[in-house]
Amino acid sequence: MRRLLPAAAVVAALALAVSACGGGGGGGGGTAASEPPVSDPAKITGEVTWWDTTRPDSEGPTFQALIKQFETAYPGIKVKYVNVPSDQAQNQFQTAAQAGSGAPDVIRSEVAWTSQFASLGYLQPLDGTRAVDKQEDFLAGPLSSTKFGGKTYAVPQVTDTLALIYNKRLLKEAGHDQAPKTVEELKQTALDVKAKTGAAGLALNVDSYFLLPFMYGEGGDLLDVANKKIVVNSPANVKAIQTVADLIGSGAAPKPATTESYANAMTALKEGKAAMIYNGPWALSEIYQGKEFKDKTNLGIAPVPSGSVKAAAPTGGWNLAIYAGSKNIPAAYEFVRFMTTVEAQAKIAKEISLLPTRTSAYANPDVQGNADVAVFKPIMDTAVPRPWIPEGGQLFQPLLEGYQALVGGKSAPADMLAKVDEQYHGIMKDWS
């Protein structure tokens, strides 16, 4: 799941980047070659502290069950499970790693954080270690997010993207048997739902990650990485933001609050007060707890509607990374290896619909038996890779502030993007 950092966290991240050369994190830790061979992994001892970023109510039980399986298989290793909210984990890890104390042995790192942590010297290189098992089995997109400077610093745990998630009953009552395929159809469907059912058509989430499908749909992007060029303030993106503003202005989407809009949108969908939202597979376990979806067949999942150019959503997901200053490196290797096996990924897919990162996992009966995963997999195949650069985790806060200004009536689309462009140039000073 992608949640945004508060502004203070971004300031802290920038400050840490200035002092990047290792801090308390050991400057990158030992190399894989320095690790002695393990004759019997099951005899390894130690305590592994794991910072998990899943929701403790709907996702946490599955991961805690996997921990129990791991401790049975590795009786000499204890796992200390700590659930850290996803919107706080990045800043908390950086603060602890910089201080040289309090960082976990293993962190569940959002894909955009991994290269940043690695650039700061906070992650253990994993090439040639037991943490990485059959690297060729991982999907290319998630695997690419684990690399920095030619080395591997994490192992992909789950992958995701965004889709249009909708209430079939409300759409049918509004006269629509299928999900909208274009943004124009999205607007009309939402207006029909509002007119004929009284429910909101589309509940928007004021999170900049959720703007990306609209931008990609018009052929826009945030960066041109190959040419080191900032392209957020483009005509394509202006058109995309105008589309979002029109959805709100027309009444197709009620004006969202500038804070807590993710929770508000989820609640509206679950209670039948909104017919459609954009969200990812991580949200499904929570959505199914809503009264509208006790009958799971009432939930529809479709690709995000296309703009004038294409239909596309961002690549997301989570990696498992090991802190370079860990005192339990061998035990951490075994934990990461176990938690990214086909069997672990299949259990996660079966129980909470999170998408595997291993190609072979999609042949597992438990994965094939989950209809939600089957729907999301082809959507995932068309997802747009995000820039796996150290600054990647800092791109969303300026966009969030612009989105909030847009919704609050304080900024027009062109002015919003001009301000974001200015902030991006402050982050990436050597980019044009």
Please report the distance between the alpha carbons of the first and last residues.
31 Å
- What's the CATH first level of the largest domain? Alpha Beta
Specify the helix fraction band. Answer: 25-40%
CATH homologous superfamily assignment of the largest domain = Periplasmic binding protein-like II
| Unreliable parts | 1-34
Structural class: alpha+beta
Q: What's the number of domains? A: 2
Q: Do you know the CATH topology of the largest domain?
A: D-Maltodextrin-Binding Protein, domain 2
Radius of gyration: 22 Å
Number of helices: 17
Instruction: Please list the strands of the largest sheet in the order they lie side by side.
Output: 2-1-3-13-6-14
- Count all strands and give the number: 14
Overall pLDDT level = 91
SS strand fraction? 5-15%
Please summarize what this structure is:
With 432 residues, the chain is of the alpha+beta class. 40% of the residues lie in helices and 14% in strands.
Structure in words:
This protein has 432 residues and is of the alpha+beta class. It has 2 domains: 43-160 and 316-381, Periplasmic binding protein-like II (D-Maltodextrin-Binding Protein, domain 2); 163-313 and 391-427, D-Maltodextrin-Binding Protein, domain 2 (3-Layer(aba) Sandwich), CATH 3.40.190. It has helices spanning 7-18, 60-73, 89-99, 111-119, 140-144, 168-173, 183-197, 212-217, 235-249, 261-270, 284-287, 329-339, 342-352, 365-368, 371-381, 396-407, 413-427, and strands spanning 46-52, 77-83, 106-110, 147-148, 151-152, 155-160, 163-167, 200-202, 223-224, 229-230, 274-279, 299-302, 316-322, 355-356. Helix 2 (60-73) links the parallel strand 1 and strand 2 (77-83). Mean pLDDT is 91; it is low at 1-34.
